[in-house]
Here is the input.
Amino acid sequence: MPYQKPKNIINDGNVGIDLGVSTVAIVGDNETIWTRFAVELASKQKEVRKLQRKMDRQRRAGNPNNFNSNGTVKKGKKRWNKSNRYKKIAIKKREIERKQAAHRKSLHGRLVNQT
Here is the structure.
């Protein structure tokens, strides 16, 4: 038998977990819990979208030969030049997304370990 911490008690019975997009339902023999998924997580989607638009404008300004006059991307093989400011904005966007993912993962762990 593997070591088990005293605070983690294993009981007999069946437990079912139903993961939805934004909710979690936990059904046991004696109790049913329904909770929202990652409620404390503040959405940074507006900030990410703003950075994506800024990156798109910078990409268009730095690569005018890769776009048609109506704004669509030309067909064929292209070489994309990335400016230093574009790279900084991309790093900032990735960092926001990484922090969101880490926070979401910690909230999932808290939900799993909740008693």
Observations:
- The radius of gyration is 23 Å.
- The chain is about 40% helix and 15% strand.
